[in-house]
Amino acid sequence: MGFPSMIVDDPLLSLVSPEVEPYPNAEERRVMYVAVTRARRTVTILVSEARPSVFVEELMKEPKFGLVVPLEAQKHTHTCPGCGGRLLHMAGKDGRDWYRFEHVKPCGIRMPACPACGVGLPVRSRTSGDLVCGDCGETHRACPSCEAGWLVERSGRYGAFLGCVCFPDCAGKAKLQKSA
């Protein structure tokens, strides 16, 4: 059931226990305290970014605990513009990098990494409306149909066109500007 346990105590147990605890999950807090205070130098707590424990959330709010999130995890973790879920950086088998959801695929978006640098994830600029890569600064034309995708050149039965990188989840398209 996770930590802290979300199992409700048996009502019969409340008849024999001294009194109600003054704060929620008191027993789990005591177990966590014992576990953390047994460390000699440092404590490493591994947490799901999508659903961290309430205890970890409390620790993160207190700067005096010196909680450190690895720089690599901070750099390549993004929020999905479609549903607000967490997108994590994944190395692809074909040599290209992708961004996918941490646990489940709630909105169906699967994003490739920036085609210019191969690592970053372009995010929508508030000023221009285009997508800008946070790693290399490359600008990409935003998809007219979805919040997250950008347009890349594709070819179809009627010739070249611009299509969304989120295809087949997004069918956003635009005409290719012919150069004079």
Strand content: 15-25%
Order of helices and strands: HHHHEEEEEEEEEE
Number of separate structural domains? 2
Q: Largest sheet, if any? A: 4 strands, antiparallel
| Helix content percent band | 10-25%
Give the neighbour order of strands across the main sheet. 1-2-3-4
The Rg value, from CA coordinates, equals: 23 Å
Distance between the termini: 64 Å
Low-confidence stretches: none
Structural class call reads alpha+beta
Shape: elongated
Average pLDDT taken over every residue: 75
What is the number of E strands?
Answer: 10
Describe the structure.
The protein has 180 residues and is of the alpha+beta class. It has helices at residues 11-16, 26-37, 54-61, 71-75; strands at residues 77-79, 86-91, 97-101, 111-112, 122-124, 131-133, 139-140, 151-156, 159-164, 173-174. The protein has a four-stranded antiparallel β-sheet. The longest helix is centred in the N-terminal third of the chain and has 12 residues, at 26-37. It starts with 10 loop residues before the first helix and ends in a 6-residue tail after the last strand.
